């Protein structure tokens, strides 16, 4: 067993380019199908993309000349569509919210790269963050290396996700075409960040992450080791997080097996992940590291076998101890409820909905860090340990004294 994060790199290596003031905007492509051939232009967009903008917003976009039909700008919203016509909507460039841009390389070999992601940086494009992401910096970095080496090296791509407000380990791989990247983005929704550089590494690492979740059906309120033994599971990856939670956690160890499902929520088009009896199985193993009665908070270590979106935030909130500073999840594992849960029909300059006034999953403020991953190397099968340095507020008193 080895710890490459401490042995293979003498000094931390960082990379990252400052973000441009505006991004490049986005282009959305559609082909008119038979079922849509009798619709007008405004009916098509306001029906198919109603979560992107209200009716008046789509009218504004059409009048702005942001939509073309078969390459021609069309400003008449009542234009009838024809089967096979190609529609393109151009979302105008915008200034994305502030985000860090530097990434630290914790470990790198021919198959994968492990990064230390700062809090506040999104991993993959989504919502307001389309350029200011880890993926963009990886693509820029790989392009620079390829140019300097005069070769066409593959682009590293994350094999899982970390929440925007979560810091720590991110592992990536490459050798992917654009369609593979998009497919990967749709499939993977885990929290630790690994990147791979070969298709073999991609396949194995993705399998490692998926295995823990796929074996959870029917397992409730039992120890991890017992569950793994009974199922004959040979775990290929172990993910450890640090978190600071509100209140004093009484038990030294807590296993949380609350299922996680989706509910409708303003400002989140695909719905919000919450604790739900009808959701999918999820397991988190929580261990108390230190209690601070004066500040009424607890430092915990969390091991996750499954990787449901926002799992740690939801599970800790479910047991009555939301992450300290979490703007979204409250006791019970859901969002703060109010009587004003509706979408604001006002719209921004580009016609889209204004940013929700209610908290959304990408909001930061909490302390959650992907600290350590132990995995079987996808090529050599050697067991390796990679760790990301802990932020000061997530260290125990003993760890602070030892530094």
UniProtKB/TrEMBL annotation:
Pfam families per record: PseudoU_synth_2
UniProt organism field: Cannabis sativa (Hemp)
Cited SUPFAM superfamilies: Pseudouridine synthase
Origin superkingdom: Eukaryota
Transmembrane segments: none
Keyword Cell membrane on entry: no
Gene3D superfamilies in alphabetical order: Pseudouridine synthase (3.30.2350.10)
Protein name: Pseudouridine synthase RsuA/RluA-like domain-containing protein
Keyword line: RNA-binding
Limits of the Pseudouridine synthase RsuA/RluA-like domain: 233-317
Any coiled-coil regions, as ranges: none
Protein's GO biological process: enzyme-directed rRNA pseudouridine synthesis
